[in-house]
Design a protein that fits this description.
Mean pLDDT of chain A: 88
Radius of gyration of chain B: 24 Å
Order of helices and strands of chain B: HHHHHHHHHHHH
CATH class of the largest domain in chain B: Mainly Alpha
Shape of chain A: globular
Strand content of chain B: under 5%
Mean pLDDT of chain B: 86
Distance between the termini of chain A: 31 Å
Largest sheet of chain A: 11 strands, mixed
Low-confidence stretches of chain A: 1-22
Helix content of chain B: over 70%
CATH architecture of the largest domain in chain A: 3-Layer(aba) Sandwich
Oligomer: heterodimer
Number of strands of chain B: 0
CATH architecture of the largest domain in chain B: Orthogonal Bundle
Low-confidence stretches of chain B: none
Chain lengths: ~575, ~325
Amino acid sequence: MRTSRCLFGAIAAGSFLAAAAAQAERGSDGHVSIIYWQAPSILNPYLSGGTKDLESSSLVIEPLGRHDANGNLVAWLAESVPTVANGGVSEDLTSITWKLREGLVWSDGSPLTSEDVVFTADYCMHPQGGCAQLSNFDSVQSVEAIDDLTIQITFDVPKPYPYSVFVGAQSPVLQRSQFQDCLGARAPECTEQNFNPIGTGPFRVVEFRPNDVITMEANPNYRDPDKPAFATLTFKGGGDAAAAGRAVLETGEFDYAWNLQLAPDVLQNMQNAGKGTVVSAFGTLVERLMVNLTDPNPELGDERATPKHPHPFLTDRNVRQALSMAVDRDLLVEIGYGQAGKATCNVVPAPEIYASTANDGCLVQDIEAANRLLDDAGWVRGADGVREKDGVRLSILYQTSTNAVRQDFQALIKQWWSEIGIESELRNISASVFFGSDPGSPDTFQKFFADIEMYANNFEGADPETYLGNWKCNENPRPETQWQGGNMPRFCSEEYDSMLADMAKTGDINERARLGKAMNDMLMQEFVIIPLVHRGRVSAHSNTLGGVDLNTWDSELWNVADWHRVK
Amino acid sequence: MFHYTVRRLLYAIPTLLLISLILFLLLDLAPGDPTAQLPLTIPPDVKERIRASLGLGEPIHIRYLLWLQQFFVNESLHLISELTGWDISGDRQRVISWQTRSPVVDIVIQRLPQTLWVVGLSYVVGIAIALPIGIISAYRQYSWFDQVGTFVSMVGFSVPTFFTGVLLIVIFSVHLGWLPSIYDTTHVVTDWNSFLFQIRQLLMPVFVLALFNAAQISRFMRASMLDNLNLDYVRTARSKGLAERAVILVHVLRNSMIPVVTVIALGVPSVFGGAIITEQIFKVNGLGQLLIIAIEASDIPMVQTLSFIFAILIVLFNLIADVIYGILDPRIRYD
C-alpha cells in the first residue's frame, strides 16, 4: 500500500485530532454532509453491486471483519480475525470460526446474535434471490451457529483465503427479524427493508430517497458511547464529479466528496480555493490493454474470436512486446490522472507483498528498440509505412468504452504505434453496452470482436487468487459459455493453470505471494495484458472535517465513526 | 364541445396503447444491460442470476403484457387503496424499478415537488416575463426596447443552460458565496427563514430555466402581435374611438394569444418531464434526473413508465390546447 503525501498529512493530522476528539460526546459535533456524484439507489448491498450503494450502506450495516486503509484485515463485529495460528481456521483450511464481540446490539436495541449472521448467508445464497454478492459465498457449504456468538462457516474445498464471506462492505450482516420475510424471490419486494436496513453501524436511516438523498442520525445504541461525533448526516447524490468537488473545495457546502475523477489541473485549481484537501490512495485498479490472441475476423462467423482461429499477427510475441514498448506510460498518467495515477507494469500492482518488480522495464518508452524488434522479427514496412509479413498487415482495431480520458489515451497510443509501423483504427462503445453482457450484442468487452481493447479492472479485498483465476484456459469467453468468462486475451498456459491450482492449496502467505507474482510475471512477459496506469482513488474533504483515512480496500466511509469537526 | 372532448378522450386510448407498445419495443431493442454498471469484480454468472431475478428471461410479449397489467391495473388499484383506505390492491405486484427495487410510481411522486418547484416555477416566471416583453416589443417595433428584448431572447435561446448554470454557480456560489450551489431536496418551509432559504436555493435554477422559456415564448408573442396589429379590425376599433389600451389589450391581445396558448400548453408536459441538464447542474434531482439515471442504468421499467407518463401528459395537453382555442375564439367550434 503506497499512499500519497497529502494522505500522510491527513492521517497525521487525523490521528492527532482523533486523540483530542476521543473525549467528545456522541453527537456533539452537529451535522456532517457527504456528496457522492452517483446517487445511491438502495441500501442493501446484496441487491446491488454498485459502489455508491455499498458505501452508503456501510454507514449503517457492518461486516464481521474488514480491511483497513493499509489493506490489513481487522476484526469489526468479530472479536478477532480467525487464522490457522489462533485456531479460528481449521488445519485442513475447510472451515473458519468467527466469534462475535460481546454485547453488540442493533440500532433498535435488540441483541446481535450468530442467528443474524446465519440468516444473512441464507439470504444471499437463496437460489432465487439474485444476490449480487453471491461470488463471495463461493464454495460455502454451510454456515452454522455454534452458540449465540459463534459462527462456523464450512467450505466444500480447502479455502486458503477464507475471508471473502462477511468481510468488507460488500458482505455485511443483516438483521434476521427485519429481513426474514424477504428471502429469495421476495427480496426485491421488501422496499421498506431495503431502504431502511437496521444496522449496528454508527448511523441509522431517518429517510431514504432513492437516487437522491439519505438523511441519517447517530445510532443511539452504537457500541462506542462517545461515537459518532456527528448527530446527523446528509448523504447527497447526483450531479457530476466537478460539481461535487466544487461543493467541498470551493464553496464549502459539503464536508466530503467521493471519487473526484477530474483533470489534474482542475482539481488543483479547486484545492487552491483553500476550503478543503484532496486525498488519494491506491488500491488494485489498473487501466490495461487486452491483446486478443484469437482472430476476430467476421468472416469466421460463429467461430470468430475463439481459440479455433489464432490471431494472424498478435500471436507473435514480438509484436505484442513492441506494442507495449511504444507506450509512454508517464505521459498517459500526466494527461489522464495526475495525482490519481501511477505508471505500472503489473496487472497485480498491490498489495505490496504481491507487487512484482520484474517487469519495470516497461516504464521507459523505447520506440527505437520496438522498431528494431519488429525489424528483426521480419515485419517489413510497406509503401504506406505499415509493416507487413507474408501478406499480413499490422493493422489493429482498438476498442474501449466511451470516456474522455480513454479517448485521449487511444489517440496518443495510436500515434505511438504508427511510429513503429503499426496502423490502428479506433472505436469507442457506450459503457452500458461495452460492459453489458448481452450475448446478442457484438460489442461487449467479453466478445472482444477487435484486436486490442482497453478498460480498467481490480479485485476486491487484498487477495488476488480469484482475480488471477480470470486467465485460466477454460475462462475464455466463447459461444458455449454464452460469451461469459474473464479471460479476454484467450490466454492459455498449462504452467499458469498449475500455479493457480497450487495457490488454491497454499495457506502460507509468503508462498501465495511468490505464486501470485510468478503468475503476474508470466502474463506480463507474454504481453497478453499490457498494463498502462495504476489508478488511485481521489476524494476530498473539508478542512474542518477530521479523521478521514481514505481506504481503497473497503468502503471509503469505513471509519466514519471517528470523523469529527476540527475546531 | 363536450361531445368533441369525449370523442378525443376516447381516441386517446388506442393512441396511448400504441405509444406504450412502441416505447416498450424501442427500449427492448436498444442495446444495454442493467448489470453493466456493476463492478467487474462481480462474476458473469452472478450477473446472469441478477438478470433472471429481474424477469429478463421471459419472452418479450409476456413482459409487455405484464407491464401493462402492472401499470394500468395494479397501479390504479393501489392508487385507489391509498386514496380511500380500502384494501383492494392486496399483494399485487406494482411496477418495480430495477435500480432501487421499489415501486416506480412512488419515486415519481416523491420527485414531483422539487420538479414542480423548480421547473414549474421557472415556466410561470418565464411566461410572466415573456408576455409583456412580446407585447411591448411588437407595439413599439424597432424601438430600443424591442432591440434589447430581441438581444436578450437571442442570448436566452442560444446559450445552453449548462453554460449559464455553471456560470451563475461560479459567480454567486464560489466567488460571492451568496447562494447554495446544491439544491436541498429535504428542505421544508416552516417559517420565514426557511422560506428565505427556499427562495435562495430556487433563485439560480429558476432564473436559468426562466430565461430559456421566456426567450422562446416572447418571440412567439411578438410575432403573433405583429401579424394582428395591421389587420382591418384593429383600424376599425381605433376609428370607433376606442382607447389605445383597449385596442391592444382586449382586441389585439386576445386574437394574438391563440397560437401562443398552443405553445404554452404544449410546453406544460415538459415541465413534468423535468429539466435534465439544469436538474443535474443544481442537483435538484427531479424527474429529469430520474429519467437520465434510469436510462444510464438500463432501468427499463422506470424509463418505460416515465416516458409513458410524459406521453399521457402530451396527449392530454394537446386536447387542452384545442379546447382553449374554442374559448378564445368563438368562431372555432368543433361540433
